[in-house]
Write a sequence for this structure.
């Protein structure tokens, strides 16, 4: 890293100063502004900062931040790791992350799905990790089939080693132009975006069917194979398999995960992280203890206390994310749901109708957030009894002391975190 | 009135991008609230479209699924037969364009539609994304239309259809009108769960099949409508 040209050294130093100022003045965590300043002075800064490191790019619709964190934790067994831990997942955030750990031989970068081609082109990262693609914030995000097509073009003809979830047909299609792919059967609960073959548009035959996986039996969920009825596109043979609580490695050895992070989605993230770690020479025996140390990621899954109430905070930004959150939430506990529709959430609340809320029948449900009326109507039509609350504070006060689950979408989640001083 | 109302959702595997299921759920709920039992059929694009349904729904989608959907519907013919029998149809966004004679493909090239509505669509210059509010044709006697649009389409209405509404906020067809109707077919650019924000439109579709419907408690529907219209309409 000492090889950085003078201009790049200056750009990254000034960027770090801007980041420090941003933090000191309480304007932010500095991870975007610092990178912006650096890129302004040296447009080629990201390429220069990325050179000579072993770099992993992590992209997906859901689980990017958590998987980035898991891979980072594992690789710390090998040495220092530069990472954008705060979810600033566009080039300015990448510059900040790499500039703040200049000597780190490893880099793990969460990358926004749309930016993956550009970031791959700039950084020439050696490893790309792709987990899932599903409908998300349609008012500003690209359509996902188009996105997968861009991934294909970006990966074709490059030496990058791709680690991809072969249980997601669209991810498989997006990854399959890469020179080298390690396939991980990491599961797919949300299936409403993969009924058609990404290659030819024909029907995909799948083990389970319907309703986002909610009505699937355990056996159907476990059988994740798929194949097109009209062309030859089918699920590749996996190298790694997530089997319930265990991961089976390419040698057939079974590893009990025993994560502190809850839910099937995090077991999938961990399976992918183990495959990435092994690609860099770290076997599961050394990586797994590191994954088990992760308890919460940027406030997700954390528990906060208020007046005798223990609130567990779950983030869900899109229909697939809500299914994952329902998998983690405890049916015996009351639940607070908070929904906003600010820019980062997507201004369109249509996705609420893709979520099957009937699973919440029978528990006390409190509804809040800036778009609580959208959610209220959605629940009323689903015949899920609920109580409308003007604010998160009011919702907490309505409930008796004890454990409570909270599911919120992006800005609603940040507002709740801010109420607890972001100390979580 | 049929003893059981059958709702047919056409091609959810191709054309169900964002909350389109909401229209199915709202129709079911509003029929149920009047004591009318419903049966919903999800028709995959690899399966034939049944001809005996009462209310048909088709939703939005990306360019390629839209083209595939149009091809398969044309080949299948089931929807045409159902419409001739007097079934009602709500066609949303990409599904709306498909119902015309022609629409714009991936590169803007003209693609043949299924020809159930006298409209033709092409690609506009800019994507229309945002809240939409529009005053419905007085002949239909419906309150202000409210919803969200997200499309690049521009649609020209032929003499065989009437505009569903005139836009107050938003783009719609691109000429100051939004959507269209003819016979028992309604087409609209209000994407996703259009009926959730417009329960009167849901009742219109139902009543075409069932006859006049009694009023029901519209509390949550009305609360959401009021809030959305307050947020977007000029004071």
């Amino acid at each position: 890293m000492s090889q950085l040209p003078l201009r790049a050294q200056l750009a990254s130093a000034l960027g770090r100063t801007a980041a420090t100022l941003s933090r000191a003045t309480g304007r932010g965590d500095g991870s975007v502004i610092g990178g912006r300043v650096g890129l302004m002075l040296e447009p080629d800064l990201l390429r220069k900062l990325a050179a000579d490191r072993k770099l992993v790019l992590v992209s997906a619709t859901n689980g990017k931040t958590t998987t980035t964190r898991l891979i980072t934790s594992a690789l710390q067994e090998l040495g220092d790791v530069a990472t954008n831990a705060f979810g600033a997942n566009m080039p300015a955030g990448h510059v900040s992350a790499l500039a703040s750990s200049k000597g780190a031989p490893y880099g793990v970068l969460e990358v926004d799905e749309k930016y993956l081609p550009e970031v791959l082109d700039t950084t020439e990262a050696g490893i790309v990790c792709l987990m899932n693609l599903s409908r998300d914030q349609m008012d500003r995000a690209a359509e996902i089939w188009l996105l997968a097509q861009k991934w294909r073009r970006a990966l074709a003809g490059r030496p990058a080693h791709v680690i991809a979830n072969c249980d997601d047909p669209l991810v498989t299609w997006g990854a399959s132009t890469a020179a080298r792919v390690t396939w991980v059967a990491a599961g797919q609960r949300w299936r409403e975006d993969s009924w058609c073959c990404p290659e030819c548009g024909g029907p995909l035959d799948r083990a389970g069917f319907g309703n986002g996986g909610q009505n699937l039996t355990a056996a159907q969920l476990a059988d994740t194979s798929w194949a097109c009825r009209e062309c030859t596109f089918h699920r590749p043979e996996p190298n790694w398999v997530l089997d319930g609580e265990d991961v089976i490695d390419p040698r057939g050895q079974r590893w009990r995960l025993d994560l502190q992070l809850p839910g099937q989605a995090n077991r999938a993230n961990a399976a992918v992280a183990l495959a990435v770690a092994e690609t860099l020479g770290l076997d599961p025996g050394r990586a797994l203890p590191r994954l088990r140390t992760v308890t919460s990621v940027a406030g997700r899954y954390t528990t906060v206390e208020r007046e005798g109430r223990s609130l567990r905070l779950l983030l869900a930004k899109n229909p697939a994310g809500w299914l994952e959150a329902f998998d983690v939430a405890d049916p015996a506990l009351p639940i607070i749901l908070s929904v906003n529709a600010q820019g980062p959430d997507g201004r369109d609340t249509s996705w609420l109708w893709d979520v099957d809320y009937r699973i919440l029948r029978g528990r006390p449900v409190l509804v809040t957030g800036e778009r609580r009326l959208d959610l209220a109507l959605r629940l009323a039509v689903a015949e899920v009894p609920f109580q409308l609350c003007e604010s998160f504070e009011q919702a907490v006060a309505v409930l008796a002391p004890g454990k409570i689950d909270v599911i919120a979408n992006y800005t609603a989640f940040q507002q709740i975190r801010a109420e607890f001083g972001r100390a979580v | 009135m049929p003893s059981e109302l059958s709702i047919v959702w056409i091609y959810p595997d191709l054309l169900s991008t964002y909350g389109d299921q909401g229209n199915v759920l709202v129709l079911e709920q509003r029929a149920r609230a009047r004591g009318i039992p419903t049966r919903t059929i999800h028709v995959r694009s690899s399966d034939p479209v049944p001809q005996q349904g009462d209310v048909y729904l088709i939703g939005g989608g990306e360019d390629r699924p839209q083209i595939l959907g149009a091809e398969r519907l044309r080949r299948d013919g089931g929807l045409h037969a159902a419409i001739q029998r007097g079934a009602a149809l709500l066609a949303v966004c990409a599904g709306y364009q498909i119902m015309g004679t022609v629409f714009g493909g991936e590169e803007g090239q003209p693609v043949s539609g299924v020809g159930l509505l006298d409209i033709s669509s092409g690609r506009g210059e800019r994507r229309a994304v945002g809240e939409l509010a529009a005053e419905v044709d007085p002949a239909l006697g419906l309150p202000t239309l409210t919803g969200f649009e997200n499309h690049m389409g521009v649609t020209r209405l032929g003499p065989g259809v009437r505009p569903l509404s005139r836009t107050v906020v938003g783009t719609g067809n691109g000429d100051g009108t939004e959507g269209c109707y003819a016979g028992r077919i309604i087409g609209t650019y209000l994407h996703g769960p259009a009926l959730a924000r417009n329960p009167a439109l849901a009742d219109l579709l139902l009543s075409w099949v069932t006859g006049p419907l009694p009023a029901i408690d519209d509390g949550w529907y009305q609360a959401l409508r009021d809030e959305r219209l307050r947020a977007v309409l000029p004071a």
